[in-house]
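Slide 14.
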Amino acid sequence: MVVGGLTRTCFLLISRHRRVRIALLAVLATLPLLAGGWLWLRDSSLVSVEHVRVSGLHGPEARAIETALAGAAGHMSTLDVHPAALRAAVASFPVVRTVHAIPSFPHGLQIEVIEQPPVAALTIGGTRTAVAADGVVLGSALLSSSLPALSDGQGAAERSAVGQLVGQHVKGQNLLAELAVLGAAPAPLERVTMRVFTSPGGQGLTVAMRGGLLVYFGDAARPHAKWTALARVLADPSSAGASYIDVRLPERPAAGFSAGSAPSASAVSTTGQASTPESTVSALAEGLTAITGGGSSAGGGTTSASAATPAAGSAATTEASSAATPEAGAASGATESKSTSGSETPAAAPAPGG
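Slide 15: predicted structure.
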């Protein structure tokens, strides 16, 4: 009733005002012309895409991806960009996670490519292939000698050829956890990572670095905090010669040493393995200044507490710890590592709270 009354009132007003009627008719006549003009302009050469700039590409497939995107963009205008068509153009390149297009009137188009770079070389059915941090199989074209090695323990490879798996996700909780750890590695440490495996000694996920240094991650939880804790320990001169570093609790990492190779300034622990050469640890520490904030020292006092119970047969451990946090406090009851001489000294650099 109310709507009907308002409609009748509007018609009465229009019928009594000649100028209003004329204006309304003019608008109704102009709308189709404006719509047609817009459709013509949107697809005309006046706004066609002529200059394409692609960013975010790396690796051996960069040129092919750029060519595919430029070809797809050439059929568009800056007023009618089709992101779905751009994604379809690079669908055969699993290294591309997604693309974003930003038109620049009248003839420019900026395309940003978000990649999922390879983090490991996975052996599937005897064939090696690159794989991304989220488990996407990228194919053998992206393999390089610097990629850490993994093995598909689920046997998926034996059921399918690598070519059939490209673009698909690998299965297996352990394998995905290893990939998640590798995907969080900072560039300076990523380049010197050899492989990731589950340690039979109970340390969980273990990263083997070039030169023999082992890093105990335990699991894939808080991988960024654990890598940062590792970087701080490596940047500390007292870690030189370590055979392993335990970052299972990032707030309290522990550097382990072989018997007879521990630094005199602190007590150390070991798994009984040969110590990593001092030059190797020094090489790992290079380029970590940006990660650790420019130094290995931090304000505030430190306390000595075990990051985790050291492996059996250990001689001594050097540990770095920060001010108490809820997670660190929860581990305060862990078994403390004692040196054979009975002394224990905290390392100079506390690790981040994560």
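Speaker note: The chain is about 30% helix and 20% strand.
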